[in-house]
Design goal:
By secondary structure, the chain is an alpha+beta fold. The protein contains 10 helices and 6 strands. A hairpin with a 6-residue loop joins strand 5 and strand 6. The protein binds a DNA duplex (16 and 16 nucleotides) through helix 5 and strand 3. Its main location: nucleus.
DNA sequence: CGACTTTGACCAGCGC
DNA sequence: GCGCTGGTCAAAGTCG
């Protein structure tokens, strides 16, 4: 069984509270929605370019959408809400989250790209040398600034989840306090410096935590694969086209039967696997769930599939 | 042969 | 300053 669950934007370096929680098992099966930092910055929906997700018909009507000011990431937090967890750092608010293939890719695209564009053409060796020096100087003068990042928890047997983009692995590191290594991937498309880190949850090895960082500067290669799209229903195809995100049918989403793919596809997985372009998973997720508000309204009360992913004590609290 | 993975080395940041 | 850790580089290996 596969499902993609908790989402969080993390802007820190190294291990994040999010991953700590993942490893602590707290977030497993929990949807937490973070609205942006301190309530003063853009909400997640705005960052995703979704204007009215909280509108009158929003599926969030009945779902607690905490602000970061109200909630803490502490595992000891009482009454954890059963929504998707996301968070932006302040710098991430300035740069929208990676929205590969999104129609709303803003001019505040990735830093590295801008750097490249500004770089004069020089001798190759010299350039390499300069690049290294620049990198060094950059790191010396300022704290490493990270691209907006976006983490997914995915219950999956495979580490490399098909998300519509092609990735090249450029590193692997053992993670402290975890038997599972963390893999580093970079988008293979030239001039696109989107990266992703993939690791397994310490507590639940079946959960893959994928953290995307940066913004794709090109359309997803998967979009041209008509054979993929033809497996989708109209709305699912809509979600793919508009949000291009890595997203599998989660247990929750599978409640929306009419949007379930007709048959399994992609990746050779045994379960229906909805492959999207990249990042923006929450957007697609939310967008999709707008189509099935009825089911969504039952979400928190439904002890059907939902109980697979939401701890029973949370359901009791609803 | 090109694309991709593996893996050891290197570097920066951080805490002590 | 030192050691630890995360992130990246790049050469070598693998695969189709």
């Amino acid at each position: 069984m596969e499902m993609k669950q908790a989402v969080k934007i993390e802007g820190g370096v190294g291990s994040s509270p999010f991953l700590d929680e993942v490893q602590g098992g707290y977030l497993q099966g929990v949807f937490d929605m973070w609205e942006g930092e301190k309530g003063g910055s853009l909400g997640f929906m705005e960052l995703l370019g979704i204007q009215d997700i909280n509108g009158p018909s929003s599926l969030f009507d009945g779902i607690h959408v905490p602000s970061i000011a109200q909630e803490s990431l502490s595992p000891a937090r009482p009454n954890p809400p059963a929504v998707t967890k996301m968070e932006y750092s302040s710098s991430e608010v300035l740069n929208p989250p990676a929205t590969p293939n999104s129609s709303s890719i803003s001019s505040a695209s990735n830093e590295a790209l801008n750097d490249e564009q500004a770089k004069p053409v020089v001798d190759e060796e010299e350039e390499q040398y300069k690049t290294k020096k620049q990198l060094k100087a950059k790191k010396t003068n300022q704290k490493r600034q990270r691209e907006p990042s976006f983490a997914f928890m995915t219950k999956s047997e495979v580490d490399q989840l098909e998300d519509g983009y092609r990735w090249r692995k450029y590193g692997q590191k053992a993670v402290k306090n975890s038997p599972f290594p963390r893999s580093y991937y970079r988008c293979t498309t030239a001039s696109c410096n989107v990266k992703k880190r993939v690791e397994r949850s310490f507590n639940d090895p079946t959960i893959v935590v994928t953290t995307y960082e940066g913004q794709h500067t090109h359309p997803s290669p998967v979009m041209s694969r008509s054979n993929l799209v033809t497996h989708l229903t109209d709305s699912a195809a809509f979600a793919v086209t508009n949000f291009a995100m890595p997203m599998q049918r989660s247990t929750v989403l599978s409640n929306c039967n009419q949007y379930r793919p007709q048959q399994p596809f992609v990746n050779g997985l045994s379960t229906p696997f909805m492959s999207f372009g990249s990042i923006n998973a929450a957007a697609g997720f939310l967008q999709e769930r707008r189509f099935c508000t009825q089911e969504a309204s039952l979400l928190l009360k439904d002890h059907g599939l939902l109980q697979d992913i939401v701890p029973s004590h949370m359901l009791k609290e609803e």
